[in-house]
TrEMBL record:
Lineage: Bacteria, Pseudomonadati, Spirochaetota, Spirochaetia, Spirochaetales
Domain of life of the organism encoding this protein: Bacteria
Pfam (any one): OGG_N
Species this protein is from: Sphaerochaeta globosa (strain ATCC BAA-1886 / DSM 22777 / Buddy) (Spirochaeta sp. (strain Buddy))
Gene3D superfamilies cross-referenced by the UniProt entry: 3.30.310.260, Helix-hairpin-Helix base-excision DNA repair enzymes (C-terminal), Hypothetical protein, domain 2
InterPro entries: DNA_glycosylase (IPR011257), HhH-GPD_domain (IPR003265), HhH_base_excis_C (IPR023170), OGG_N (IPR012904), Oxidative_DNA_repair_enzyme (IPR052054)
GO biological process: base-excision repair; nucleotide-excision repair
All copies of domain HhH-GPD, residue ranges: 102-247
Enzyme class, spelled out: lyase
Protein name as it appears in the record: DNA-(apurinic or apyrimidinic site) lyase
Known EC number: 4.2.99.18
Record's keyword terms, sorted: DNA damage, DNA repair, Glycosidase, Hydrolase, Lyase, Multifunctional enzyme
Length: 253
DNA sequence: GGCCAGGCCCCAG
DNA sequence: CTGGGGCATGGC
């Protein structure tokens, strides 16, 4: 059993936009159900629930991966020391697809608020202020005008194309990384970077190494001339540490 | 109040 | 194949 998961760094490092944290309570709707826990109750809540165990990826080889990555270089080792316990979640592919369509030329705060907006307007009501993220069938018939009125901006047509072609997602597990990426990119608004985020955060492909503006800066500064292969076979996990570290303290005075 | 954000589309060369 | 403008919006 792996040591400890770093809940805050895992849930707020830009791989999921479903979570809130207030007064020490983490909450989100998963599988049409409200999930709540604190740092103290997390293990009790999760260990008795196989679906949550899988969602939080509690049985993967994090010890082995971190031991390897820490040996690579000082910068990565520092990022790992700072946030040891980041897990890569096994999220629903549909929600990850939609989330990262929203992500382009956008910031994490606003991605989260747009995700919540779609949930409140089109998703099933769960309880109190909580809504599930809408399934594709809940979004049939939605128009571009509606989506733009909700503030989705130029991403509206991309969301519509994803709604029409969501069936692509079911076939992704059968494909190689390369073929899977090409298949995802047949959806409008999905380019190389968004495809890699989907492969990493929904399909747990460890070779996926998405490069956004932050990661481009990291690579230029600390890893000139290198690429994902340097971090193999744990590129996705390395990327998540480097991304989060850069956005929080790394490089800041 | 301008700059920037987990980019991509589209069109020129 | 590569480069660069345009794109909606709001947080800061």
């Amino acid at each position: 059993m792996s040591a400890s998961i770093h809940l805050e760094a895992t849930l707020f490092s830009g791989q999921s936009f479903a979570w809130t944290q207030q007064d020490g309570i983490y909450q989100a709707v998963l599988n049409q159900e409200l999930v709540s826990f604190t740092e103290e109750s997390f293990h009790t809540v999760v260990s008795s629930n196989p679906q949550l165990r899988h969602y939080f990826d509690m049985d993967w080889e994090y010890e082995k991966a971190l031991s390897h990555l820490s040996s690579l270089d000082g910068h990565l080792s520092e990022a790992i020391q700072s946030y040891r316990g980041i897990h890569i979640l096994n999220q629903d592919p549909w929600e990850v697809l939609m989330s990262f369509l929203l992500s382009q030329n956008n910031n994490i705060k606003r991605i989260r608020s747009m995700y919540q907006k779609l949930s409140e307007v089109y998703g099933a009501h769960i309880e109190g202020p909580w809504y599930a993220f809408p399934r594709p069938q809940h979004l049939q018939g939605v128009t571009q005008r509606e989506l733009r009125a909700l503030g989705m901006g130029f991403r509206a047509p991309y969301l519509l194309d994803a709604i029409q072609n969501h069936a692509i997602l079911a076939g992704i597990p059968l494909l190689s990384d390369q073929k899977a990426s090409e298949e995802l990119q047949t959806i409008k608004g999905v380019g190389p970077k968004v495809a890699l985020c989907i492969l990493a955060f929904a399909y747990h492909r460890q070779q996926a190494f998405p490069l956004d503006t932050w990661m481009l800066k990291v690579m230029k500064t600390y890893y000139p001339g290198r690429d994902a292969s340097y971090f193999a076979p744990y590129a996705a996990l390395a990327q998540q540490y480097l991304f989060h570290y850069e956005r929080t303290q790394g490089g800041r005075s």
